[in-house]
Amino acid sequence: MNAEVIVKNLEELSALGRAIADALVPNTVLLLKGELGAGKTALVKEIGLGMGITETITSPTFTLINEYYSGRLPLYHIDLYRLEKKQHILALHIENYWQGVDFPLGVVAIEWAEKLPVLPENHVDISLQIAPEEWRIIKISGGQLPNWHNFYAELAGDHPKSKQTYLTKGADYV
């Protein structure tokens, strides 16, 4: 599956986050990539809100991993920005989150995922790019999500939660 989304403001980012949240199932791994300030943390916050997370979702830049359990699924928010060495990333044992070892299966969102020495077998790539006028181009690809058709329906404006069609439809609709 592939989708390219153009987000013009926070309201549209929020709608995208809700659409992604609706498609998520346990053991989903989101690999977020993009330059500093591209909106990775903001998108994870919106996804968390769409999942019903009631705690304040903050950047895990200094804590490395934040865990949230108040939504319909646990959210494990990981930020690899400050880690430069492969052994430091491996020492976190973040695979335990997507393998369900010591943690209930949920959604694992990893910022700066390009630093991962080993990728999970099944994951969704989310690439964020700053565009002119401070818009964001968000490319979503990979992964197998059973509820992905809901995501595309919302992108196309065919889902009951859709309020407007402002997103570029992707290829490979389910």
Polypeptide structure, described:
The chain has a single domain, classed as 3-Layer(aba) Sandwich (Rossmann fold), CATH 3.40.50. It contains five helices and seven strands; from the N terminus they run E-H-E-H-E-E-H-H-E-E-E-H. The chain has helices at residues 10-23, 40-50, 86-91, 95-99, 148-156, and strands spanning 2-7, 28-33, 65-68, 75-79, 107-111, 124-130, 136-141. A hairpin with a 6-residue loop joins strand 3 (65-68) and strand 4. Helix 1 packs across helix 2 (40-50). The longest helix has 14 residues, at 10-23. The radius of gyration is 15 Å and the shape is globular.
Fold blueprint:
Layout: E1 2-7, H1 10-23, E2 28-33, H2 40-50, E3 65-68, E4 75-79, H3 86-91, H4 95-99, E5 107-111, E6 124-130, E7 136-141, H5 148-156
Parallel strand pairs: 2-5, 2-6, 4-5
Antiparallel strand pairs: 1-7, 3-4, 6-7
Helix pairs in contact: 1-2, 1-5
Helix-and-strand structural type: alpha/beta
Average pLDDT value? 85
Can you identify the CATH superfamily?
A: P-loop containing nucleotide triphosphate hydrolases
In total, the number of strands is 7
**How would you sum up the major sheet?**
7 strands, mixed
Label this structure with key terms.
Rossmann fold; 5 helices; disordered C terminus; 26% helix; 174 residues; alpha/beta; seven-stranded mixed β-sheet
Task: Tell me briefly what this model is.
The chain has about 170 residues and is of the alpha/beta class.
